[in-house]
Amino acid sequence: MDLDIVVRGHQVVEDGYEFFGRRGLVTVFSAPNYCGEFDNAGAVMNVDENLLCSFQGPIALLTTTPREPSQ
């Protein structure tokens, strides 16, 4: 196999993404503050038409203020 990079998920990483193995493996995790038990950020990986990878993140947890039910 002629692979440049392997992208995987399902592992909490502190900054939302983390490289391993001389940048041949990257873990991307998009859920900030996972299950309320971790103090992690989330990230999103973008791949353009030239296969150039970039990241948006870290993404912090957004909270909203509950509203009163409308009548």
UniProtKB/TrEMBL annotation:
SUPFAM superfamilies assigned to the protein according to its UniProt record, in alphabetical order: Metallo-dependent phosphatases (SSF56300)
Recorded GO MF terms: protein serine/threonine phosphatase activity
InterPro entries documented for this protein: Metallo-depent_PP-like, PP1_catalytic_subunit, Ser/Thr-sp_prot-phosphatase
Signal peptide range: none
GO CC terms in record: cytoplasm; nucleus
UniProt superkingdom: Eukaryota
Protein's recorded name: SER_THR_PHOSPHATASE domain-containing protein
